[in-house]
Amino acid sequence: MSVEFNHTIVLSRDREKSARFLAGILGLEVGAPTGVFLPVTTANGVTLDFVTIDADIPLQHYAFLVSEEEFDQALARLVEARIPIQADPHGNHPRRINRNDGGRGVYFPDPAGHGLEILTRPYGTAPASELNGVTEEVPGAV
User: Of the candidates 22, 49, 19, which has an alpha carbon nearest to the alpha carbon of residue 36?
Assistant: First the structure.
């Protein structure tokens, strides 16, 4: 059997709000609660199990590989919902997307403060791309 990533627990202040936020942006569904967990499952079968805790939540980063069409849809949802976006994880390029590896990528926060990312090409797939380091402004983005 090959090793596959199966699930992770995502800490949140409100599991409903955080799970519905992610599912809404990515065009996924929120599953039925399983005990204290509220699952969101990606196309490759990985489940993010959201749980509500009453404590400080350490920042985590979750990146999702999407198609070009899914990227367009998710980006439109982010802009419409007025969720702040940025082209890099450090916030040096707000209201922009990156073009790394010839694809597109964007970072945004979830309701618990986690750093989420969607990208159309895995990092390192086109190290010689002329688009590496290029960012593009997103009209209407905050």
Answer: 49
Find the farthest-apart pair of alpha carbons in the chain and give their distance in angstroms, rounded.
48
The predicted-structure confidence for 71-82, as pLDDT tens digits, reads as follows 999 999 999 999
**What band does 1 get if pLDDT is binned at 50, 70 and 90?**
confident
Who contacts 39 (Cβ-Cβ below 8 Å, separation ≥6)? 7, 19, 30, 31, 32, 47, 48, 49, 50
CB of 128 closer than 8 Å to CB of 101: no
Task: Tell me the DSSP string of 92-123.
Answer: SSBTEEE-GGGS-EEEEE-TTS-EEEEESS-T
pTM surpassing 0.85?
yes
